Amino acid sequence: MFSFDIEYKDSETSARAGRIKTPHGEIETPIFMPVGTVGSVKALSPEDLNNAGAQIILGNTYHLYLRPGTEVLKHFGGLAAFSSWNKPTLTDSGGFQVFSLAELNKITEDGVSFKSHLDGSSLYLNPEKSIEIQEAIGSDIIMSFDECIPYPATYEYVKNSVDRTARWALRGKNAKKRDEQALFGIVQGGIYEDMRKRSAEQLTSIGFDGYSIGGLSVGEEISTMYEICGYTASLLPQDKPRYLMGVGTPEDILTCIGLGVDMFDCVMPTRNARNGTLFTSSGKFSIKRADLAFSDEKIDENCSCYTCRNFSRGYLRHLYKAGEILALRLNSIHNISFYLSIVKNSRNAVKEGKFKSFQQEMLYRLKNNN
Ligand SMILES: CC1(C)O[C@H]2[C@@H](O1)[C@@]1(COC(C)(C)O1)O[C@@H]2CNc1nc2cc3nc(N)[nH]c(=O)c3cc2[nH]1
Ligand SMILES: [Zn+2]
């Protein structure tokens, strides 16, 4: 079963605090979803993720289809059982990766043929295949197979792609066999508001359990992303979750919560952790900085994560410079904990009717790089 209830609504912004119920557990929104593309959130164990407060993680149809493949996943009873993750998972449909990662061969009305980025073998994805793979993965929330329209794109291209994405979304909904999985539609439309309206109307008339705002965080100006996000969110049903795909920085998340978005995912906290960039409530910094060699400070005074409770910046700098594997884990624990604290504190601020002042204060503090 899948349900979404809005528990609190902010009076000054479009922010809301809610609760999603899925077969593998509940999710308090707004929520950030750590990205576990090929079945693990890089460098983190399920225990690390639970200790950091993660409530749902993201997997990826394209990657999991290539490796380990649906036969292995079905053998182990799905991705969650396979990876011993005992909470909800959401999977992206493969549309984005096929267009951005694989060597594209052909896009037709039926689907997309491409070459695997792993071994160059010829593969094929279409709405029915994507749903079938996501059913084998067994994720709690699955995504429609769509085209993430590249940026920039002409109005003509956007219109044709939006209409095909809607036809693909309907095919996916008709192909879905497992009732316990929730299916989201993905709104496209590039940077054209009338195309966003067209896509939102097409998808809401088909009807989905939730709606993703797609086609953003693909290289457009941040101001454009906020404008299109806010406009698109306003077109979507109030009583269904809204998921902004691939976003973003702490500032982006705080801003888009105010625009009415409930769910976020981004590789930034884990990817940046692995290259030594750490997020704090007063901006981000590089652990490689020479002036940190003797620093006995924590990464962030306001953070209660395992890394901040036990290690100094000086030690973390040493680990990173020495190329120690532990650096990847400790940095990732902190960055994921920080991102989860942003959404948790936002949720609490909405409940207390203080989101606008919380958001403005956080945005101000995040600007002063420490
Ligand atoms: C290629 C890779 C790993 O995906 C991340 C990351 O790089 C990077 C590169 O720059 C940052 C911003 C840090 O995020 O951009 C990606 C995050 N933006 C994004 N993810 C999306 C996923 C999507 N999935 C579907 N099915 N449909 C969409 O329209 C869609 C749109 C999306 N936009
Ligand atoms: Zn920390």
TrEMBL record:
It catalyses: 7-aminomethyl-7-carbaguanine + guanosine(34) in tRNA = 7-aminomethyl-7-carbaguanosine(34) in tRNA + guanine. Belongs to the queuine tRNA-ribosyltransferase family. Homodimer. Within each dimer, one monomer is responsible for RNA recognition and catalysis, while the other monomer binds to the replacement base PreQ1. GO terms for biological process: tRNA queuosine(34) biosynthetic process. This is Queuine tRNA-ribosyltransferase. The active site is at D92 (proton acceptor), D265 (nucleophile). GO terms for cellular component: cytosol. InterPro entries: ArchSynthase1/Queuine_TRR (IPR050076), TGT (IPR004803), TGT-like_sf (IPR036511), tRNA_ribo_trans-like (IPR002616). Keywords: Glycosyltransferase, Metal-binding, Queuosine biosynthesis, Transferase, tRNA processing, Zinc. The keyword Oxidoreductase does not apply. Its EC number is 2.4.2.29. The lineage of its organism: Bacteria, Pseudomonadati, Deferribacterota, Deferribacteres, Deferribacterales. Catalyzes the base-exchange of a guanine (G) residue with the queuine precursor 7-aminomethyl-7-deazaguanine (PreQ1) at position 34 (anticodon wobble position) in tRNAs with GU(N) anticodons (tRNA-Asp, -Asn, -His and -Tyr). Catalysis occurs through a double-displacement mechanism. The nucleophile active site attacks the C1' of nucleotide 34 to detach the guanine base from the RNA, forming a covalent enzyme-RNA intermediate. The proton acceptor active site deprotonates the incoming PreQ1, allowing a nucleophilic attack on the C1' of the ribose to form the product. It comes from Mucispirillum schaedleri ASF457. Binds 1 zinc ion per subunit. Substrate binds at D92, S93, G94, G95, F96, D146, Q188, G215. Its cofactor is Zn(2+). The gene is tgt. GO terms for molecular function: metal ion binding; tRNA-guanosine(34) queuine transglycosylase activity. Zn(2+) binds at C303, C305, C308, H334. It holds the Pfam family TGT. Pathway: tRNA modification; tRNA-queuosine biosynthesis. Residues 13-365 form the tRNA-guanine(15) transglycosylase-like domain. Residues 246-252, 270-274 are annotated as: RNA binding. Signal peptide: none annotated.
